[in-house]
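Quick one, tokens below. Sequence please?
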């Protein structure tokens, strides 16, 4: 008989060590063995075989006990296998850390809760308590053989279920939870589950078999479905293990006062080993009655000789009525009362900062902290996408694989980061820009999971990754990264946080410390249990109760719905783009957000919005930037139309249709305007009117990466209809660029991107609407793609403004403060602006902070386009102390009475932020004047305040932008054709207004920008240009050079200091002849200057090569070193001309020429000098500088030729003239006149009259004449095509070359002679000095057969390609293809250091006529157009020039076929021609027929106007 003390006779979790098995456990083990009879198991029990004795048995021992040989052998084999299995079992609990966790919520199946491996359930195995709180039972289930697993599972569930039902208590049995002594009680082990359905399939029939017939249905209802709870690894990654759980709910309405017996059905499968035919079952049945007894289930009907169990059973049954009644009362007490929860409204308040609208939320940014989410929660993700968080700190290492990040990325673009990327290693805004922090959501993987970053176990996370997460949080909480008190940190607890060392607890603590409280923290979880656990952990860690900052009574579905309801209809509605013929296409949110450099204007923009019309209109009329809402409101019933400027109809009806007809991928349209006259408004009005015909967008940030911008523009162009033609073109508005070069850079990159995507340009695909400020209307030459808006309204416009004012005064009470509107309505009358400013600034007190800030803002606005001060900076400076909720003081109010002069705006830069600016540029300029005249606050005072006030540069948003703006007003110069501005307008104005104080400002600037080479360079320039203090200038130039060792522009400043010192010293030295001491000093300075300019040249070449590698840097070659060396040469000539050796007469002047040419040595001059003794000291000094003197002419000539080559053969990429280059060329001409006067002196008339002059002398004189006319280089000769040279001069040059070519000419001279003839034919075709065309061809072919120096190869091949181009009735040149290939090679070899940022000039075009007339010079095309330089450049760029009838009459149209991005011209021999604009052949099939005009440049033949 069994012992009374054995309570768990059917306990299936056998101890790992067989030595510890009892005889009962041995019997149970044997009963489960296949092919072992129950009688054999009973033999072991009757013989008192325990685990220890079982290990000592062998087959013979079992035979002696009466067991047959077969079962005995099977038992011994099974024992040996059990020994192996137990040995390989799970590790002992003694090595496990004790981390508690909550059990899975009772009777729930869709919660996202998961266990973590080795954590400890914080409830013990227990009996009935309050009958509602579930009791628990744990089963390891880890060493159960697969063949008996289901039998054991169903048996344990039924035993536990019956015990709970009889005890009237809820309960949960857990499989995969360890117990003493092998594990810590309640330790999560987990089980590998291969087939989840098998458990449920096995359980339901077992319930049917084991319960009495009358109770089968009740049992099925009380025993809930099997639940599988996932087990996470310690590093938060998913595992393949589960804890299997079954909940028991003996509801009183089901169970009543019933008692539940179970039947012990032990099925033994018996297989015939030999034939495997039959499966027989033998069933032994016995009644059982289980009850909960402490942590176990006890059978009160266990067979025994004692009567005590039956007494206990009878007593238990008698008390069933009372127990049932207690159950019913407990259920009634536990029924959830429907709460009048306010958490929905609390969530709305907290997530918006009190505004109850996400459109107008107090919070500008959201930061999300999240842990592992369950797949069922992804349905509630919409609110997270709409919040568009700045950053997400994700602690799920599998988030990118199948978690939250993967799901979010399907709907909105993200930038994935590791925490290390947030470590501060440089300027803060540079890091933020690199991370693209305010462009798209930054997803930070805080526990690995990407880039081979391994996740850490929860107990190791703090050591491995805690520091880097603190860096992330510190970075995000900086005032110069996210707006102070205007961002909210939301902890989304998708999974319950139950451990004190959980990373989220540490993360909360760090945010709490950084934000100095919880006002900017919101925690969201979806159950009270999760909240309680989280709140307790935070209270233990931080000592605070966060219940007021938590939402936990709402499910995540309710959270999702509540937050989405805070969006306006406009924000929630779909947005559409036009796709042609009046149809629309949906713009997906992810696609729109991926275009993060563009503000896309949709067809249905603003529809369904709830923006406040009054607020939007007031902001605009006061002087704020126009918004799409202003156009939308003006179209609504009851409103007068938006004021339409005169040029609007011209743009819509003339400019746009004309641009549409151009065959160019990206066309440019310039809208130039005086600041504050409505230029930006007109540009946006144009976009608004065209939004149903174009995909319209505005560039957000002018400093964005243009390569990215181009990619996004083309992405918008090809959106949805990638293959559909024709595409809806894109119109991109760019506003406030300060340099046309940047506009051209963007245009070029868009064209390249179109080429890359094979986008055909049969018509314009991208329209660049360039809205640019211009103060100088008189200098703007009107062109077909340029419209100018001035500050003078027409009569019609004035009438429209008056009509609009009537409407404004009806709907707005404070129309008198609508300065932006009224300034235009008053037609920009100065008196009106003066009155506004004078009255507003009456109370100005320079000692008040808001007055100081206004003065700074005024100065910045006047001298820097688009300057502003961030709201964060203003709040810090004015001590406004903002709060993280609505209703706090607005920054505009901090300016007091001056608030009517400022307006808020959004600044798109490295970091996006809100800022304040002056409402109108005219008001800013008048304020500056008023401050000076009425309050004695001058520009110098404000600049000094701006530069010396550290508080302006503390840790606030917009700090980098402020530094850029300050740098701009100090450094940026304005250039014109008349003169080169020496300093920025601010510095020049300070010098005029308060002379001398500009030096103080510059010194303060050098302290503020201590590490800035350009500011040090600026100070150096001031000292050598204005103060003539060259020692100071050298110091600052040296400092600049130390800060930027590789910049040619900085190196040039050092050279310029020496050059100006030399120039100044020569000018101040009045004595003549010059003393030998001064000669020595001057030549030393000259040598130093030349060496410095040579260094500049070397650095310039290195820079140019480096730019070619970068490809996006279009900064041209720095020629200042070449010009500087020439200028020093001129100064040397001036100094030497004042010495007695070279100044006496013309003979000595010729001697100087020979010495500086290297043709005569100083020792020879000494020998012929009859005043040698008197001049000895001069000779001694001159001999110290022999290298300088002998190479002077050569070095000057090299630089003249280089600069001529540069200016003649390379032009602006877009045909626009650079005023700085014009100034440099003017100076170059002056220097050449000095050079020619000394080295090219000749009497041309005497030369031809005097027949007795020796040939060699005559040749020398002729060559000097040619050099003097710059006709000794092909560049100089080609330059005559663009200069209005008298015909006689060109004829004389031809005549001289004819003479040279009859007297053993060099190859270079013969090449030049060919050029001279071609140029002369363009100037005067009937000239008697023009060599017959065929003879010129013969000469060319002769030269081509001879040896030629490398330096002459480029001009030779250029002229050869043009003259040998196939033509009718002439033999074809078979080597032309080779010559073209060589021309391209020599162009890249010779011009490589100079052509960056430039385009080769097309000198000639292929005409319709023959002979010389076949080559049409560029100037002939210009004559056909009869346009000014700006208009011609515009027509050239956009291709309109080829539509001109006169041009069509002159040029020959050639046909060809497309091949490998080139065109094979249809000539007798195939010739490759490069398209001028490759996008004109993009998308065309190989072999497509095209026609084009042919142009000739040093880079090779070009195809223009391809059709």
């Amino acid at each position: 008989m069994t012992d009374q003390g054995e309570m768990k006779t059917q306990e299936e979790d056998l101890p790992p060590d067989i030595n510890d098995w009892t005889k009962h456990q041995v019997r149970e083990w044997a009963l489960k063995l296949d092919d072992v009879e129950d009688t054999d198991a009973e033999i072991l029990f009757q013989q008192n075989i325990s685990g220890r004795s079982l290990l000592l048995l062998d087959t013979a021992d079992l035979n002696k006990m009466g067991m047959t040989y077969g079962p005995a052998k099977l038992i011994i084999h099974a024992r040996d296998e059990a020994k192996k299995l137990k040995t390989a079992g799970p590790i002992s609990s003694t090595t496990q850390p004790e981390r508690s966790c909550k059990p899975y919520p009772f009777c729930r199946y869709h919660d996202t809760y998961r266990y973590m491996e080795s954590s400890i359930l914080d409830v013990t195995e227990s009996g009935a308590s309050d009958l509602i709180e579930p009791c628990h039972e744990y089963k390891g289930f880890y060493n159960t053989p697969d063949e008996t697993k289901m039998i054991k599972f169903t048996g344990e569930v039924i035993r536990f279920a019956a015990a709970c039902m009889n005890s009237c208590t809820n309960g949960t049995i857990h499989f995969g939870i360890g117990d003493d002594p092998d594990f810590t009680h309640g330790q999560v082990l987990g089980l590998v589950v291969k087939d989840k359905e098998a458990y449920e399939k096995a359980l339901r029939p077992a319930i049917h078999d084991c319960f009495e017939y009358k109770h089968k249905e009740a049992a099925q209802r009380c025993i809930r479905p099997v639940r599988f709870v996932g087990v996470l690894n310690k590093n938060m990654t998913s595992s393949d293990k589960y804890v299997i759980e079954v909940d028991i709910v003996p509801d009183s309405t089901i169970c009543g006062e019933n008692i539940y017996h179970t039947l012990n059905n032990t099925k033994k499968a018996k297989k015939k080993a030999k034939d495997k035919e039959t499966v027989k079952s033998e069933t032994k049945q016995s009644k059982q009655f289980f009850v909960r007894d402490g942590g176990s289930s006890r059978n009160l009907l266990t067979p025994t000789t004692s009567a005590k169990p039956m007494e206990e059973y009878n007593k238990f049954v008698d008390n069933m009525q009372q127990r049932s009644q207690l159950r019913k009362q407990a259920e009634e007490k536990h029924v959830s009362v429907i709460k009048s929860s306010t958490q929905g409204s609390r969530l709305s308040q907290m997530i918006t900062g009190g505004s109850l609208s996400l459109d107008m939320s107090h919070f500008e940014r959201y930061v999300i902290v999240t842990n592992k989410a369950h797949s069922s929660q992804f349905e509630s993700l919409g609110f997270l996408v709409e919040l568009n968080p700045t950053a997400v700190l994700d602690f799920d290492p599998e988030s990118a694989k199948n978690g939250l990040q993967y799901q979010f990325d399907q709907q909105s673009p993200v930038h994935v980061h590791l925490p290390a990327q947030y470590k501060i290693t440089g300027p803060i805004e540079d890091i933020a820009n690199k991370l693209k922090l305010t462009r798209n959501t930054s997803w930070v993987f805080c526990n690995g999971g990407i880039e081979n970053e391994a996740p850490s176990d929860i107990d190791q996370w703090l050591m491995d990754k805690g520091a880097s997460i603190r860096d992330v949080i510190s970075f995000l909480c900086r005032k110069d990264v996210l707006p102070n008190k205007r961002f909210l940190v939301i902890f989304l607890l998708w999974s319950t946080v139950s451990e004190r060392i959980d990373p989220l607890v540490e993360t909360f603590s760090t945010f709490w410390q950084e934000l100095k409280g919880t006002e900017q923290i919101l925690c969201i979880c979806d159950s009270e249990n999760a909240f309680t656990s989280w709140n307790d952990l935070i209270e233990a860690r931080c000592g605070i109760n966060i219940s007021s900052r938590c939402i936990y009574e709402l499910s995540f579905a309710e959270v999702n719905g509540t937050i989405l309801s805070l969006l306006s209809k406009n924000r929630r509605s779909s947005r559409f783009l036009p796709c042609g013929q009046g149809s629309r296409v949906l713009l997906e949110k992810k696609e729109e957000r991926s275009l993060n450099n563009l503000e896309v204007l949709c067809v249905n923009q603003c529809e369904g919005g709830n923006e406040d019309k009054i607020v939007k209109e007031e902001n605009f009329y006061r002087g704020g930037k126009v918004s799409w809402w202003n156009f939308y409101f003006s179209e609504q019933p009851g409103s007068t139309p938006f004021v339409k400027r005169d040029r609007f109809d011209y743009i819509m009806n003339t400019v746009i249709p004309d641009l549409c007809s151009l065959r160019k991928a990206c066309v440019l349209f310039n809208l130039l305007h005086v600041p504050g006259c409505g230029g930006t408004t007109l540009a946006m009005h144009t976009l608004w009117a065209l939004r149903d015909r174009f995909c319209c967008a505005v560039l957000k940030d002018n400093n964005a990466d243009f390569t990215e911008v181009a990619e996004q523009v083309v992405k918008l162009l090809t959106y949805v209809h990638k293959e559909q033609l024709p595409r809806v073109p894109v119109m991109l508005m760019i506003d406030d660029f300060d340099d046309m070069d940047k506009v051209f850079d963007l245009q070029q990159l868009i064209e390249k991107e179109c080429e890359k995507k094979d986008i055909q340009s049969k018509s314009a695909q991208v329209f660049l609407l360039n809205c640019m400020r211009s103060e100088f209307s008189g200098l703007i030459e009107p062109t077909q793609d340029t419209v100018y808006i001035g500050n003078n309204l027409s009569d019609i416009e004035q009438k429209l403004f008056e009509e609009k004012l009537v409407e404004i005064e009806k709907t707005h009470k404070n129309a008198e403060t609508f300065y932006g509107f009224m300034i235009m309505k008053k037609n920009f009358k100065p008196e009106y602006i003066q009155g506004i400013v004078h009255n507003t600034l009456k109370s100005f007190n320079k000692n008040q902070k808001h007055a100081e800030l206004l003065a700074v803002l005024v100065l910045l606005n006047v001298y820097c386009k688009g300057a502003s001060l961030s709201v964060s900076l203003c709040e810090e400076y004015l001590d406004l102390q903002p709060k993280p909720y609505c209703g706090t003081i607005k920054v505009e109010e901090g300016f007091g009475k001056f608030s009517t002069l400022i307006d808020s705006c959004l600044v798109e830069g490295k970091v996006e932020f809100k800022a304040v600016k002056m409402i109108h540029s005219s008001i800013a300029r008048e304020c500056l004047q008023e401050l000076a005249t009425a309050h004695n606050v001058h520009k110098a005072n404000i600049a000094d305040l701006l530069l010396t006030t550290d508080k302006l540069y503390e840790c606030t948003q917009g700090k980098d932008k402020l530094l850029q703006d300050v740098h701009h007003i100090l450094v940026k110069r304005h250039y014109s054709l008349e003169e080169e501005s020496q300093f920025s307008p601010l510095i020049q104005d300070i010098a005029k207004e308060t002379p001398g104080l500009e030096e103080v400002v510059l010194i303060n600037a050098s302290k503020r920008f201590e590490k800035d080479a350009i500011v040090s360079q600026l100070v150096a320039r001031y000292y050598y240009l204005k103060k003539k203090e060259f020692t100071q200038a050298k110091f600052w130039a040296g400092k600049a050079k130390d800060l930027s060792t590789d910049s040619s522009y900085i190196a040039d400043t050092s050279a310029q200091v020496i050059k100006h010192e030399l120039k100044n010293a020569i000018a101040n030295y009045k004595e003549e002849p010059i003393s030998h001491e001064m000669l020595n000093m001057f030549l030393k300075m000259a040598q130093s200057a030349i060496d410095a300019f040579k260094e500049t040249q070397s650095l310039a070449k290195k820079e140019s090569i480096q730019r070619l590698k970068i490809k996006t840097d279009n900064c041209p070659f720095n020629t200042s070193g070449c010009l500087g060396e020439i200028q020093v040469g001129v100064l040397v000539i001036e100094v030497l001309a004042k010495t007695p050796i070279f100044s006496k007469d013309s003979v000595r002047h010729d001697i100087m020429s020979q010495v500086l040419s290297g043709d005569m040595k100083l020792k020879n001059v000494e020998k012929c000098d009859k005043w040698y003794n008197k001049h000895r000291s001069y000779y001694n000094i001159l001999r110290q500088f022999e290298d300088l003197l002998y190479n002077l002419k050569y070095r000057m000539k090299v630089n003249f030729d280089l600069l001529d080559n540069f200016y003649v053969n390379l032009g602006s990429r877009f045909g626009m003239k650079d005023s700085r280059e014009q100034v440099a060329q003017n100076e170059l001409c002056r220097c050449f006149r000095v050079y020619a006067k000394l080295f090219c002196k000749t009497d041309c008339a005497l030369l031809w009259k005097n027949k007795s002059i020796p040939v060699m002398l005559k040749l020398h004189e002729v060559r000097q004449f040619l050099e003097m006319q710059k006709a000794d280089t092909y560049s100089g000769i080609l330059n005559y095509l663009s200069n209005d040279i008298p015909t006689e001069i060109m004829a004389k040059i031809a005549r001289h070359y004819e003479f040279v070519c009859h007297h053993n000419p060099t190859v270079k001279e013969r090449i030049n002679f060919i050029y001279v003839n071609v140029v002369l034919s363009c100037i005067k075709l009937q000239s008697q000095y023009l060599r017959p065309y065929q003879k010129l061809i013969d000469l060319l072919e002769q030269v081509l057969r001879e040896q030629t120096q490398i330096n002459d190869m480029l001009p030779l091949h250029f002229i050869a390609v043009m003259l040998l181009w196939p033509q009718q009735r002439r033999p074809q040149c078979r080597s032309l293809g080779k010559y073209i290939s060589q021309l391209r090679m020599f162009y890249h070899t010779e011009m490589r250091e100079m052509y960056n940022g430039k385009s080769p000039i097309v000198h000639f075009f292929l005409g319709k006529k023959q002979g010389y007339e076949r080559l049409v010079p560029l100037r002939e095309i210009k004559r056909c157009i009869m346009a000014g330089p700006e208009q011609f450049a515009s027509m050239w760029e956009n291709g309109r020039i080829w539509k001109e009838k006169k041009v069509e009459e002159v040029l020959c149209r050639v046909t060809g076929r497309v091949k490998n991005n080139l065109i094979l011209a249809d000539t007798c021999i195939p010739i490759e021609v490069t398209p001028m604009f490759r996008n004109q052949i993009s998308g065309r099939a190989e072999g497509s027929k095209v026609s084009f005009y042919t142009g000739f440049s040093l880079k090779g033949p070009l195809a223009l106007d391809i059709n």
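The first helix runs from residue 23 to 31. Residues 1283 and 1419 are 9 Å apart (CA to CA).
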